[in-house]
Amino acid sequence: MGIKVRIPGPLRKLTNELDQVEITAGNIGELIDLLEKEYNGMKERLCDEDGELRYFVNIYLNGEDIRFIEGMNTPTESGDEVSIVPAVAGGK
Q1: pLDDT digit string (tens) for 52-84?
Q2: Which domain covers residue 55, as residue numbers?
Q3: Dihedral sign, CA of 21, 22, 28, 31?
Q4: Would 29 disulfide with which of 6, 18, 21, 72, CB 3.0-4.6 Å?
């Protein structure tokens, strides 16, 4: 059993419309690298040129924002659930 990664609608074109994939990784940074290997173009949409999470992308590990844990070094383990959530803005 790996880590369940929930893919938001705007990124599903990279995963052949899969809304969820499973990855085995030791931390969030490694998970993103493995997503990139499997789904080309994923990392550039999630990370900036320095390899840090883009400001308009949120990643949650088991419901907690990784920015308040250890960022890209946040450890992961089998059975975890990761949600990639693009920031939403706008309205009246």
Answers
A1: 999 999 999 999 999 999 999 999 999 999 999
A2: 3-86
A3: negative
A4: 72
